[in-house]
Amino acid sequence: MKKKHRLIFFGSPEFALPPLKTLYLGGYEIVGVYTQEPKKKSRGMKELKTPIHLWAESQLLPVYFPSKLDKQSLEQFESLKPDVAILFAYGKIIPLEWLNIPIFGFINIHASLLPRWRGAAPVQRAIENNDKKSGITIMKMNEGLDEGPIIASQEIAIKSETNGQTLIDQISHDSCSLLYNNLEKYLKGLLSPEDQEHEKSTYASKINKDESKLNWNLDANILEQKVRAFYPYPATWFSHKGKRYKVLKAKVSSFEGESGKILQSPLVVGCKKNSLEILEIQAEGKKSQMIDQFLLGNNNFEINSLITND
Q1: Domains, in order of start, for the chain
Q2: pLDDT digit string, tens, across residues 150-203
Q3: Which of 14, 160, 166, 262 is the most exposed place for a label (fewest CB within 10 A)?
């Protein structure tokens, strides 16, 4: 098969693998793969390479993982003579001087329907805010944060059961065909990127662990949306009697009662409006459990007691 354009891929997590594999199998000449540097395990044990790193090595592709995108790494990047660079969840901000080195620039796979939810956490913010749809945007990068012109986009419905994991999995899967079907047209000049409607933009700020703490003084539906949005990471949580518990799955219950009070068995907690029925939970340092299994022999969650959330 005749190789297509010289391409460099930037990505790190597992969900960035499908589009990379699609480009590789589609005949593009992958002249480099950039990813986050390996993480060291505790106490100096074996380094953990990213999923992108491991797969690229298995295909004998050259892998680069500079800790900083400095002048030296820029020269290395330039020496690869890329026609185009594709980026999906790389984890570092690309400096301006890098963007114009590939002939056709940098193309980003963004996990939202731009200009809605620019920024670090578009998947989680869409679910948290009860959006009815999310999607994928293929865009040409510029110096702004997710402000570049759009090459292609695809809508994805957010259903009542959608969580952060299922949505990013679908985005990962669907991005393969969206990217592949439009990249060659773009490279041949058969489609022109269109400017975003910047006045409609919203910002998806990075999630900090404090905001994923469950506040029983909020409506139950707001907490349920957070549970789904922040699964599997960072995961919503509460503390009780000196221990921390992650809530991995929950649903809204119509029971009413004092905020933070356990109203019903197995574990229905009162909120400002309605209540939250916890379905799957994970105690600190333990494996996740369905709530019935978790409560066996655990007498810290008796009906009518208050969750201290200390």
Answers
A1: 6-204 (3.40.50.170), 209-295 (3.10.25.10)
A2: 999 999 999 999 999 999 999 999 999 999 999 999 999 999 999 999 999 999
A3: 160
